[in-house]
């Protein structure tokens, strides 16, 4: 009888793991168990009354690098090429990004000329930060906070404005707590290997082998900065669902896993409330903190390590305005914590993906709220009403973008514990988890945003890697 692999969690990581398992030349029996009634996890696209598409989670996927190319390959294999909406390199959403500092929007400099010119809110041209970076010696610590790393190499302004904002934009987190080694591994590696981030970027880490397809070549030729799908990004998990079902994967929805136990013979028993499943191997693609509560007592050291990988909440407010215009054209702007502890940034969705505007087209924006402001409210046990987030978001759109009229449509969602935080020393937690799994020979593989990257591409890759590990060979892709 063939092996049974149970995949826990039907977010993009669990779907990608199942996809790569079932494409093997001799695939195991695959059962995907999802606790909620729908697949996709944080990837969720909803349609407004006028047909506009609002993304409640991720809104763009980067095509760059080997991981970006692998995701595009999967998109082609799923037959979604004609659905892809690219943001080409010459588009304002690819070229312009802004910081909101001192009550004004500032374009981030791009290109060599931009680095030589004064570029407020920075007091000096960023060329000087580059010069400092080239002459700064290599750090000696095995890990460092993003803030400390950036301050040491690029100076206090870049650390407290640019890197602070970047950490808020990507992780909704605090640069003084997040780890450079785990959050921005390419910067950490560049310093380790080349002594300098800039030298590392110039000399490159050596191109890893990349897959090839017509879509990947098009993305490269047109220098795409990101892409979405015509029906919204949720089309991707929906297409994976159809594909997996057609290949015989059993998908159980609305069935939260409530416990895992090891049986004689080393097989798993996966408890689902009133029923259970047996598995030869488990791929866990649920958050680390969830898995930590499911593990049996034999795996207590692993559960302890996983329970320390926490996540923060983000409130996503989608706004739509009729007849309104933005003061600038670009991807959006980020807000450093010194400017506003609660507003992380605003994405100008209509600029990147006007195809998602409804009929008649209305201006769509997404205000992301979180940071220390939200953490404090959560810690105090305050009532987190939709009105609170809506008011704060509308005020930010009015003050930061001049959109003073009330929006015609608004969606508010609080995504609790949605973004894992790779805090200082995260790599040690991963190492202790890996060592425990190897030493105990537990038939369990970890995947998902909790470990090595929160971007959709990272999550898909974590699912692929988990499948490779379970199969012991590269799957057919
Ligand atoms: C607001 C927001 C905006 C983002 N923007 C971007 C972006 O623009 N670009 C980008 O690349 N990335 C973005 N990300 C990050 C990215 O979307 C996520 O990191 C990624 O979708 C996480 O996927 P996952 O499968 O690892 O986890 P999840 O999506 O969390 O999936 C885990 C699944 O496990 C299920 N589950 C939980 N407990 C159980 C249980 N006991 N039993 C069974 N199932 C269970 C959950 O219901 C869920 O479906 C964003 C994230 C958020 C929250």
Give a written overview of the molecule.
The protein has helices at 12-22, 65-77, 92-95, 111-116, 126-135, 146-154, 156-171, 180-183, 185-194, 197-203, 214-221, 235-246, 288-294, 300-307, 349-352, 371-380, 386-401, 426-440, 456-471, and strands at 4-8, 29-33, 45-47, 53-55, 84-87, 97-101, 104-107, 226-229, 250-252, 259-262, 268-272, 275-279, 281-284, 311-321, 332-334, 343-347, 363-369, 409-420, 444-446. Helix 2 crosses helix 19 and helix 14 (300-307) runs antiparallel to helix 18. The chain is α/β, with parallel strands linked by helices and 477 residues long. Strand 15 (332-334) and strand 16 form a beta hairpin. Among the domains are: 4-42 and 233-309 and 423-471, FAD/NAD(P)-binding domain (3-Layer(bba) Sandwich); 114-203, protoporphyrinogen ix oxidase, domain 3 (Orthogonal Bundle), CATH 1.10.3110.10. The protein starts with a strand and ends in a 6-residue tail after the last helix. The radius of gyration is 23 Å and the shape is globular. Bound molecules: flavin-adenine dinucleotide. Residues 8-14, 33-36, 41-43, 57-61, 256-257, 285-287, 290, 314, 316, 415, 418-419, 448-449, 454-456, 459 line the site of flavin-adenine dinucleotide. It is a peripheral membrane protein. Belongs to the protoporphyrinogen/coproporphyrinogen oxidase family. Protoporphyrinogen oxidase subfamily. This is Protoporphyrinogen oxidase. Catalyzes the 6-electron oxidation of protoporphyrinogen-IX to form protoporphyrin-IX.
């Amino acid at each position: 009888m063939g092996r049974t692999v149970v995949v826990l969690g039907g977010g993009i990581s669990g779907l990608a793991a199942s996809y790569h398992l079932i494409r093997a030349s001799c695939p195991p029996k695959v059962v995907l168990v999802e606790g909620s009634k729908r697949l996709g996890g944080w990837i969720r696209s909803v349609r407004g009354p006028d047909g506009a598409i609002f993304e409640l989670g991720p809104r763009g996927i980067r095509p760059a690098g080997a991981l970006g190319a692998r995701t595009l390959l999967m998109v082609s294999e799923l037959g979604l090429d004609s659905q892809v909406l690219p943001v080409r390199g010459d588009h304002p959403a690819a070229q312009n990004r802004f910081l909101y500092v001192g009550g004004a929007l500032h374009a981030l400099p791009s290109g060599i000329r931009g680095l030589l010119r004064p570029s407020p809110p920075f007091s000096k041209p960023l060329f000087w930060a580059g010069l400092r970076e080239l002459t700064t010696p290599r750090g000696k610590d095995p890990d460092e906070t993003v803030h400390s790393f950036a301050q040491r190499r690029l100076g206090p302004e870049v650390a407290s404005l640019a890197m602070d904002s970047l950490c808020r934009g990507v992780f909704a987190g605090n640069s003084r707590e997040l780890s450079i080694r785990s959050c921005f591994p390419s910067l950490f590696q560049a310093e380790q290997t080349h002594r300098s981030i800039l030298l590392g970027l110039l000399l490159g880490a050596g191109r890893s082998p990349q897959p090839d397809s017509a879509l990947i070549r098009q993305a490269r030729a047109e220098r795409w900065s990101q892409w979405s799908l015509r029906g919204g990004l949720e089309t991707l998990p929906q297409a994976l669902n159809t594909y997996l079902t057609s290949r015989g994967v059993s998908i159980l929805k609305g069935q939260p896993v409530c416990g895992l136990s090891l049986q004689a013979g080393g097989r798993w028993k996966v408890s689902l409330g009133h029923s259970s499943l047996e598995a030869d191997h488990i791929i866990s693609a649920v958050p680390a903190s969830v898995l930590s509560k499911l593990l049996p007592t034999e795996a207590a050291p692993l559960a302890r390590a996983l329970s320390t990988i926490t996540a923060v909440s983000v409130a996503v407010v989608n706004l739509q305005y009729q007849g309104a215009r933005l003061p600038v054209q670009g991807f959006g702007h980020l807000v450093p914590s010194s400017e506003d502890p609660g507003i992380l940034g605003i994405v100008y969705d209509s600029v990147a993906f006007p195809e998602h505007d409804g009929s008649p087209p209305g201006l769509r924006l997404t205000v992301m709220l979180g940071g220390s402001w939200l953490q404090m409210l959560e810690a105090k046990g305050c009532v987190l009403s939709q009105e609170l987030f809506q008011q704060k978001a509308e005020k930010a759109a009015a003050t930061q973008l001049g959109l003073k009229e009330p929006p015609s449509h608004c969606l508010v969602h609080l995504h609790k514990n949605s973004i894992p935080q790779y805090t200082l020393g995260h790599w040690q937690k991963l190492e202790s988890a890996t060592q425990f799994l190897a030493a105990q020979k537990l038939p369990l593989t970890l995947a998902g945003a909790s470990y090595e990257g929160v971007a959709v591409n990272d999550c898909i890759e974590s699912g692929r890697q988990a499948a490779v590990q379970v199969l012991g060979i590269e799957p057919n892709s």
